[in-house]
Every structure is written in structure tokens, then in C-alpha cells.
Amino acid sequence: MQEPDLSVEIAGFKMKNPLMLASGILGISIASLRKVFEAGAGAVITKSIGYKARVGYDNPTLVEVHGGYLNAIGLSNPGVKEFYDELSNSKIDDLPLVVSLFGAKPSEFKEMVSILDELNIRAYELNLSCPHVKGFGIEVGQDPKAIREVVKSTKEETKKPLFVKLSPNVSDIVKIAKVAENSGADALTIMNTVRAMSIDIETFRPILANKIGGLSGPVIKPIAVRCVYEVSRSVRIPIIGCGGITSWQDAIEFFLAGARAVQIGTAIAYEGLNVFEKIKKGIRDYLIMKEKESVRDIVGLSHGF
Amino acid sequence: MVSNRPRITRVLDVIEESSTVRSLLFKDKLCSKAKPGQFIMVWIPGVDEIPMSISIMRDDQAGLTVRKVGEASTALFNMKVGSMIGIRGPYGNSFNPIIGKVMIVGAGTGLAPLMPLLEILTNKSASIDMIVGGKTMEEFIFMDKIKEILSKTESKIVVTTEDGSYGIKGLVTDAILPILKKKRFDMIYTCGPELMMKKVFEMAQEFNLPVQASLERVMKCGIGICGSCCIGKYNVCKDGPVFDSSKLKEVKDEFGLFRRDHSGKRVIF
Description:
The complex is a heterodimer of chains A (305) and B (269). By secondary structure, chain A is of the alpha/beta class. Chain A contains 10 helices and 14 strands. Chain A has helices at residues 30-38, 80-88, 106-116, 138-141, 144-157, 173-183, 221-232, 248-257, 267-271, 275-289; strands at residues 8-10, 13-15, 19-21, 43-45, 62-65, 68-71, 97-101, 123-127, 162-166, 187-190, 194-197, 212-216, 239-242, 261-264. In chain A, the strands form 3 sheets. In chain A, strands 3-4-7-8-9-10-13-14 form an 8-stranded parallel β-barrel, surrounded by 6 helices. Chain A has a 4-stranded antiparallel β-sheet with strand order 5-6-12-11, with no helix packed on it. With 269 residues, chain B is α/β, with parallel strands linked by helices. Chain B has 3 domains: 7-91, Translation factors (Elongation Factor Tu (Ef-tu), domain 3, Beta Barrel); 95-211, Nucleotide-binding domain of ferredoxin-NADP reductase (FNR) module (Rossmann fold); 215-269, no CATH class.
């Protein structure tokens, strides 16, 4: 049997394989992103960039829990202008680079895209779902009107594909997904972390400085699979699965649920950057075993039951 | 098993190292068996969590050495016997102690990770040349202990101060050159201000000597995923904190030139 095809395309953005580095992990410098690309990622996504620099929260910003990690970094980023400077002084032409953006209002997204758009960025991912920063993220991402305005006005400013990253911390993710689709989103990233908390029993204190953070890792995977499954049955645009993927079996589960590509983040804490090659090989072997020519052939197969 | 979570322990002893530097001793099995140069994330409940080198290891105890500078380090400095702190780690790689003639260059609290190394080297190395620098005599820490450890082996100690209040007047790097001209070393270990380490590295390059330097960057996660402590393609928390000559060459566009602040913005040294 011939070598299975791992390449995928999302709204015109072609990737050699369906594995992307999730936003928030390692994405501060181009050198780090390049390292992840060289480790086998099909695309890499930056940390979320905002209009102005933010230092984020005090430490502790991360704490491990059973089956995952809880983090509240607080959208630390150098601001769009500094970020533009760094990108324009780096070699990025061969890098399948997606820039993640967050903002408090539509005009901020618009302004950021107008600054960045001349660079060889392949797509944007709008982070409308950060679970722990007031005024940004989830407060936009659970308000249909805000989503509509942000997506529409960003879309006006660029021809590049727009991914919209959604939160599971809403009562009806399908409804929110449809709003994003109808507003012009080219793809949906499902999902961001789950609002959660951890308390130290010796000191009686919440461990994270921000008290509440976002839960990632294997523990949230079934939630993400459910969200991808439900949303992919109700929208036409491609879905990028994200949430607790640490093995090739996890990735396959997301494809079967309806994701066209998947993002990997927390798995790097467990497995290191080798996780990309490991998962790629697992997907390839699985496709051969199941006699499928392409990873595209298994997307959404669970819907038939 | 969940390992990247603060283990709460109590301060067992506070050692006054200078008017601005103290060492805190605490019980922690994992840290007591750390490798020289490894660091821990220390949670000061209600204040912050900061990376600290392990400076003391004995029995089932370990210690850290803190200079009061900002809010978090001052809070740690002010901890009393019995105060609760949370420990994650030990993290990162370590110094690789070699058999041979070694030079150790340290300044300020940069001496902290060098102390456990020094103890191991005493039993291993053919000779130790220890060069300690500081702005003024007040700032020197660990001197009695260094002298005591070094007395057990063939060694030399050189001290420099910028104001001449102790040892030779000048920079630590000024004192190194004549020594490098006279004696051939098998390894130079260094920790201190980055510009000092950069200079040590450059001099070592001239004499074709290998270096191991312990670097510092803003740290958040400590486990190599948040990327805050990146230098070149490396994360100081996971790929470091100890960088050998080949890694230092790979990060030459950043080492001693700029670091990143808490937002990720580049800040020139």
C-alpha cells in the first residue's frame, strides 16, 4: 500500500501534516516556534498577541493536577508593535506560522491585523476564549454580538484565513460556533481550556496567583471530543480539534469526531517535542491498518453511527 | 503522579550571609538529592513563585540563598523559622563536574549554584582556582565556607571588588586574564551577572577552554512549556540553566545582549 497522505488544508492554508502547536505553548520567540516546526509540527501558533504589552499575572501561573495542568499566565505578550518588529526581523517565509490574537474590542483586532498583515503569516487565530482574563477572551467569546463584531471587522482587514478559537465555558457551544461561522470565520478551533481551580490544603490558599485558571491536558479530552463532535455536525467550516491530545489515538479520536486538524500543547510537558513525530507515525500506521489513503478520509467518520 | 505542584515545607533555619542575603534551610528529600546547578520554583504563598538555585544540600535538607531585591525576594528574605514555603522541582540540567584543573568564577548570589558544585569538585578535581567578584566587601557571601572547602584540595582563591575594599581592586574578569595566561584549565564554571559570564566566555574562547555557565531568565512554568525563559531555541528552565560552550555559541545573538521581560519584550542588557 502506498504511503498515506497526511496533508490537510484549512481554508486555503496547506499543512504537510495535521498537527499544530497550540497557542500559548512556547510561542514567544520565532526561534522557539521554529524548533517546534522542525520537530514535526505542520503549523505553529504564537502566544496570543494583544494591542498593548501585558506582563500577565504573578506566579504561580501553572500547577499540575491529576491528568493535566492548570494555568493562568494572563495573556502576557509584548504587544503588537514589538511583535511586528520581531517578526519582520526574523526569517519566517518557510514557517507555517499562525498568529493568535486577543483583544477587548473589534477595533483592536482590526488595528493589529492591519499592522501584521503585510508579513508572511499564513492565518490568524482569534482567541475569543481565554478563561481567566477579565474583559478579554471568554467575555467576548460567550457574547454572540461581540463575536459577530470582532470576526466581521477583522475579516474586513485581511484576506488571510481566520480561525476562531472557542471556549467550552459556555452553555451552548454549537450556538456560538454558528455565530462565528455566520460572521465569516474560516475555521473553528475547538476548544480552549476549561475554567478550573486548585487549592493548597496546607496553606488554605488557591495555588494560582489569579486563583482561577484554565485546565488543559488529558483530563479535558472527552469534553473537547464532545464539543468537536457536536459542532462539526452543525457547521460547514473546518474544525481544528484541541484539548488533551497526547497520543496518536487521541488525535484519531478527534478526526473521527470531525476535526480536520488538531493542536498539541500540554502534551509537550509530558512527552517533549518528540510528541509530534510520535503522533504522526501513529496516524500513518493507523491509516495503513485501516486502508485509508488520507487523513482526510477519516474526518467525521463517527457521525455515521 | 502529580509532581509539578508545590510541596509545602517549613523553613528550618535562616542563615545570615550578609546584610542583604540570607540562606533558608528546609526539609525536602528530592531537593536534598538534586544535582549541582539545578533550581527550584519557590512559592511564597500570597506573594509570588520564583526560581532559586539550590545552594545547600545535606541529609534530607536543602537550602536556597536569596538577596532582597524585589517584592518576592524580600518576602523570602524575611521568612522566619517555621514559615511555610512551597517547593517545585528540582528542575533543569546541572553542572557536569569533571576530573582535572578547573576554574570557578562567581559573583554575588551567582555563587549559590556553584556551592554544591564546589563540594563535589573538591573530591574530584586536580586543582581548583576560585575567582570571586563583587562591588564591595559588604556583598561577599559564603567566603568562610569556600575557604574551608578549598582547604581540602589543591586550590587558589582570588577575590576582586570594584571599590577595592576587599582583595584586588577591579572586575572579576580583570583578574582572570593573568591566570589564564599562566595555567591551562580543563573547565571553567561560572555564574553571576550575565555580562560577566559573557566576558568569561569570550576569554575562554580566546584560550580555547570549555565553559559551563548558569543562566537566568524570567521563569513561569519551570517545565519547558510556557516559553518565558527562552534564549535562542532553548528554554533556560529545561535545556539549562547550565549552558556549555557549544550551546552558548548557539545563543550568541542573545547571550549577554538581551533578555525578555515578563511580557516577552526584549530588554537590552
